[in-house]
Amino acid sequence: MANFNVHIGVAASSTTIVATLGVSLHFMDLQHTPWLIFLGIVGGMLPDIDAVNSRPVRLLFTVLALLSATAVLSTVKQYYGQSPYLLLLGGFVYWFTRYLVRVAIRRLTVHRGIFHSILALLFFSFAITCISFYLLNQNTIYAWLNGFFLGFGFFVHLLLDEMYSVDLANRRIKKSFGTALKLFNYKNISSSILMTILTVLLYWFSPPVFPLFTLSERIFASLIF
Question: For residue 166, what pLDDT is reported?
Fold first, then answer.
């Protein structure tokens, strides 16, 4: 499998290329590209979220904890204003995500299990889309762009791990082949069923996709004119 530096480097470069293309086609503002690239990098780390004892994954959980605390505080602040309890709430959300969620994943999952799958890609993509739309108050197009870039970085990670399972020099397939880029966790059907249910629910509550037709029309118009 590819190491941490390779995953970060390829995720950053590939999402930068896609973001640059989006800006050049005039359907994405330049000011949003750093955030979208950042989400692509986070997505490039997410499949290894179950390798909880590694230093890169501890860094990933720190980032996820900060994002979770920011999202919750942004939502609560709209209703309660500058409450002195907001700091305590943010600290609790950070602690809960950084430590309790990490412990739960360590006990309930195995490496290259459910999180190394297309199903997990869809789950996280729909999740960040809903968070962006409902909690961060972003419009529909940018909420879906957030989901796309996170999912794109996620897919790059899976593809890299699968590519590293092929030894071209010795012309052989390693035992790890097929464990990275898979539709779902074939060895644990119950976890796959649970994630499927959660993914469907997230898609159900995601913002309407119809405004994306306007986005596709803008891309088509940019290519023609």
Answer: 44
